[in-house]
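PROTEIN DESIGN WORKSHEET
SECTION A - STRUCTURE
LENGTH: 114
TOKENS:
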């Protein structure tokens, strides 16, 4: 069974685009034809692998059920299934967001609403 929430890592400019209503994707998303998302369990590795050394990053919690058929679970890094969004990420499907922070053990803290 797949989780109902996934996470998107965003730069400050990308977060500003999302806050204005929707986000078409980072350059890699546009190139691949879908927006890359990660589960909670995959998030820290995604940040460490693809965003190492970058500052001013944000993470958005995305309601996968609200996106319906636009979400496809596909095999990616290490043979694991990742959620991919075929379409724009809209602010109305984001349930929480905030700047990326790490816990004492190095894992990325998940954003919480309100």
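SECTION B - SEQUENCE
RESIDUE ASSIGNMENT:
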């Amino acid at each position: 069974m797949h989780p109902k929430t996934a996470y998107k890592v965003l730069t400050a400019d990308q977060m500003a685009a999302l806050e204005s209503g929707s986000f078409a994707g980072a350059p890699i998303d546009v190139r691949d034809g879908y927006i890359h998302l990660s589960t909670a369990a995959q998030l820290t590795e995604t940040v460490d692998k693809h965003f190492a050394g970058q500052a001013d990053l944000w993470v958005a919690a995305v309601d996968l059920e609200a996106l319906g058929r636009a979400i496809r679970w596909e095999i990616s890094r290490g043979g694991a299934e990742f959620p991919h969004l075929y379409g724009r990420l809209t602010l109305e499907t984001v349930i929480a967001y905030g700047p990326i922070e790490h816990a004492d053990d190095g894992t990325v803290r998940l954003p919480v609403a309100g």
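SECTION C - NOTES
The CA atoms of residues 11 and 57 lie 5 Å apart.
The helical segments are 12-19, 27-32, 40-50, 64-67.
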